[in-house]
Amino acid sequence: MPILVLIAILIIGYIVISLLVNATIGIIGLLIPLLIWALIGWLAGKVMSGRGYGAFGNILLGLAGGVVGSFLFNVIGANWGDDGLIARIVVGVVGSIALIVVGRLVGFGKTA
């Protein structure tokens, strides 16, 4: 009987460890893109205004900038977004800067 208990404990331990590892990988899989988008937004903010837009604003700007930048680079025929992390950051920053410029042209971000 004790051998069955030991086997059951080992199986349950294996399942628990597997679940914890998968959860950790899932969290890291979400955290890395968020950090990259925040970096993109912060870099675009530094280029355009000398400051960032706060953590949440940087993440949103980086995400939207990546989409816009990919579209713009595809329009001109340059597929930089497929060439690695640095290229994706450059594409995202260019797209974020384009969003900031368009936002300023339509009146967002103006101070009274």
Keywords for this entry:
112 residues; mainly alpha; 81% helix
3D shape: elongated
Main pleated sheet: none
User: Into which percent range does the helicity of residues fall?
Assistant: over 70%
Q: Structural class of the helix and strand makeup?
A: mainly alpha
Oligomer: single chain
Q: Compute the number of strand runs.
A: 0
Describe the model.
With 112 residues, the protein is mainly α. It has one domain (2-105). It has 3 helices and no strands. It has helices at residues 2-49, 54-75, 85-105. It is elongated, with a radius of gyration of 22 Å. The mean pLDDT is 84.
Topology diagram in text:
Elements (H helix, E strand, L loop, with lengths): L1 H48 L4 H22 L9 H21 L7
Helix pairs in contact: 1-2, 1-3, 2-3
Structure, briefly:
The chain is mainly alpha-helical and 112 residues long. The protein contains three helices and no strands.
